[in-house]
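tool_call predict_complex ligand=pyridoxal-5'-phosphate
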Amino acid sequence: MEIAASATPATRALATDAVHAGREDLVELGVHAPPLDLSTTYPSHDAAGEAARIDAFATTGARPDGPPVYARLDNPTTARFETALAKLEGTESAVAFASGMAALTAVLLVRASMGLRHVVAVRPLYGCSDHLLNAGLLGTEVTWTDPAGIGEALRPDTGLVMVETPANPTLAEVDLRAVRQACGSVPLLVDNTFATPVLQRPAEEGARLVLHSATKYLGGHGDVMGGVVACDEEFARKLRQVRFATGGVLHPMAGYLLLRGLSTLPVRVRAASTTAADLARRLTTDPRVARVHYPSIGGAMISFEVYGNPHDVIAGVRLITPAVSLGSVDTLIQHPASISHRIVDADDRRSAGVSDRLLRMSVGLEDVEDLWRDLTEALSARSVRSALPAQPAREGDREGLQPRPVGR
Ligand SMILES: *Cc1c(COP(=O)(O)O)cnc(C)c1O
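tool_result ok
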């Protein structure tokens, strides 16, 4: 019998990489599930050898050959997740962190260490990303602009251009190719949390840095927090050095769960996207809904504005979970002006299109009819129904929303 050499083609489909990347050595190890290494330290009687390995890491930031010395340098289980994510995003490397915010922090610190503290960014961004840039907590100075203004906003000390697409929470989309051109030699960071590599691979459009809150779709089950930056090995080395020095490491158990999450990522994202597209279509024709936002590239996130009081929709859901975060197997809904984007100044929030009437829903894997029933019942809450359609949404109302009537 002849087995064709082409059984392992050079490029494999994303769905195949999702279940095999980061696991290349398992057959050789004689195991089926990846090992979980919880060691904080690694024994060695060769102190001179350890010194050389520490020097090598300090000067290059390359992953150490052999065991890591200490868990803050590297971890073999987390490294499997990094390898797999880099494969899915089509980058040389990836570096994982304790959370999405720790990942963004490390990127900003790498650039600040080179004296490049100025960031050009497009709103909306995830609320805490906006806050981290705008509050100057890391000495960052930010210029907010629309995509067309990026070129003009660049300065000699600009270290980063940052966009999110589809953006949290409005699902606004950015033309990555055009943005990339405007950046010149300044690294472009794309937060790809909402799209995932299943729907969009920003590195192919020229983004140097692709950031994820791994807490969301990559983990996919609402039980692991993490962040990751997919990029070239040169930038990855700097990120590893910052991670080592500042300590924002991903726990190995989280690395294990994230690798496991990646294996079902394409299936989860495609299934949830099909349901989300269906729900978005139904919401568009619903007279209680003023506006529906759904990305042209698809995805499992929907945002919509109601004529009535959005707090009543949150209070009215029963199957859908009223909670911040996204990307889990179950459907979540939240009110960005109250929660995910609360920390952003109200005027900045509204001018970025985050209306006080906006609700953001992360569609999970439930049956579409069960979700629609829950949603439509929540939309029937008294004030949601009574406010339409004669009383239009008061965009930019500085007083915000009226409190819910008591006792109803
Ligand atoms: C949640 C989120 C983040 C922050 O990630 P954490 O893991 O919560 O730190 C960053 N970007 C986007 C788009 C997010 O949704």
